[in-house]
Here is the input.
Amino acid sequence: SQQGEEDPQALSIQEGENATMNCSYKTSINNLQWYRQNSGRGLVHLILIRSNEREKHSGRLRVTLDTSKKSSSLLITASRAADTASYFCATDEGGGADGLTFGKGTHLIIQP
Amino acid sequence: DAGITQSPRHKVTETGTPVTLRCHQTENHRYMYWYRQDPGHGLRLIHYSYGVKDTDKGEVSDGYSVSRSKTEDFLLTLESATSSQTSVYFCAISQTGTNEKLFFGSGTQLSVL
Here is the structure.
């Protein structure tokens, strides 16, 4: 069953603006990850935040995690046309090697 | 795509025929995964492997089998393909057994007519 649910399903903004995507999940997690998927390609890992962390940065990416609300957000600052892609959150529930549970994704379009 | 090759990239087949998809990695990672991606469902785990000859079922394993006879190869077989198995199939690998940072292949687009 789906664990993460991204919101919004689609987002269109102007180049240079910030983009924020949200992810909600249902069960306890060990970590939450964000992936990007360009059209026709596989997913690429962006950032991982552990359950005991509240915020993490990587370049223009900022991820927050609120375990009490079972939610996370991904902020992309100063967006570029190359950021156009689908973004997925994925949760690790078991801590073992049994894979991640992915949400349905947010499709982000950056208008030049 | 991090030393992961999926073959074929595209396949069209008929209902009832067997189909095998191959995932080949050059990273020597122990853990390998097969996911399917469908509109409205995101990615769902089919099967995974935690070593040679060690495999287990994922969320949507019905109608699929897997084999891993070598570290570098993970095969996904549809014994008798159905139209509901039309999907994009992704292979992923991981170096550690902690579900951290999966690397994905480019996918196989499978159409079952």
Notes: The radius of gyration of chain B is 13 Å.
